[in-house]
Amino acid sequence: MKRILVDTNLLLEGFEINNEHKYILLSHVNRELDKHKVHGDGELKFKARRAVRFIEEHQDNFEFDVKDYKVSFDEDFDNNYTDNKIIQACIDNGYSLTTNDLLLKQKARMYGIDLVESDGKVSDLSYVGYREIAPSDSELALLYENLKKNTYNLLTNQFLIIKNNHGFVLDKLRWNGEEHVKLKHSPTKKIKSMNHLQDCAIDILLNKEIPIKIIAGNYGSGKTILSVKTALYNVLDKGNYAKIMMVRNPIGSGKEIGYLSGGKNEKTEGFFKPFIQHLDGGDQEAYFLEQRGVLSREIPFYMKGLSIEDTIIICDEAEDLDVKLIRLIGTRLSSNSAVIFAGDYNQTENEYKNNNGLMRAIDKLKGNPLVGIVVLEEDVRSNASKVFACLE
């Protein structure tokens, strides 16, 4: 069995575990991951969190080396540079090394360290739907003078979050495939944005030119409430669609309560509470909307063969769908219909961890002009809710 040291770069990008090896993590690498989780940009933060979850899920394959290595293999190399500590650890312990960093590979070859090629990038999410920049005054002026130029190589419907050097958001734009455009803001007080990423989500949710909307992200980040409020506005206030269909795959965390009597509606009623809690009138409003034919509830099992017209579908807890179910729901769309997939891939139930349809959809559909994607981050539910974020 080889003992292979893994560097930060490879952990951020992802790799497949080979059960024949033991993977070594240095304390220096762990500190870099922690730093990126807090101080990185949006995509880097996500990748660092993903790497930490990956290590936790494969903890039996990893071994932690907590020694604080002092660089002695060459007096000209900086002792505070993590790559040099990696080289020193390999020399001291006979570790092999796996990395995608070309300079680190070259340095490892210089000192005769065994290099192991990674077994390929894991199929995991790295696209968050936006890019954050902190341009200089001249770069900012150039951007606004050339709004039809894709200066930052954005995908279609990817957002550009413009910040100053202190992290304050100056502006938000979306590349629509032809030019950078301003975001659509909430036209009603019933749809409230709590942060700049929710602004991006609202822009997607209100845009009829983007019929496939994926709002992903952490618990408490506002996925469901924004989906429900914008759907109600689109149907009841604007008349963009005639109906709302709530879709949920009826599985969940915790212990089952056993056999439930009644028909489909009675058996699945509890799974639709996250939708209904965001109706101003709660259960009573849901009842009246259903009686008028404006609101319906469905589960994927019963959707095969349906053709859904003039409807906005809200598929909540979409992390609990495999690729087949995502495809099943999406292919129901007929004329003048749209679908919202809302989910937190961090809360995926076990049976969908290795075949996660939401993550696959984001990876495969990004950049399609009919698709809008944004991954929300901040928990806006409450300060108390944030306390439990550390329980990973």
From TrEMBL:
Q: Which InterPro entries match?
A: P-loop_NTPase, PhoH, PhoH2-like, PIN-like_dom_sf, PIN_dom
> What family classification does the UniProt entry report for this protein?
In the N-terminal section; belongs to the PINc/VapC protein family.
Q: For the PhoH-like protein domain, which residue ranges apply? A: 190-384
The source's domain of life comes to Bacteria
Pfam families reported in the protein's UniProt record: PhoH, PIN_4
Q: Which SUPFAM superfamilies match?
A: P-loop containing nucleoside triphosphate hydrolases, PIN domain-like
Show where the PIN domain sits: 5-115
Q: What is this protein called?
A: PhoH family protein
Q: Which UniProt keywords apply?
A: ATP-binding, Nucleotide-binding
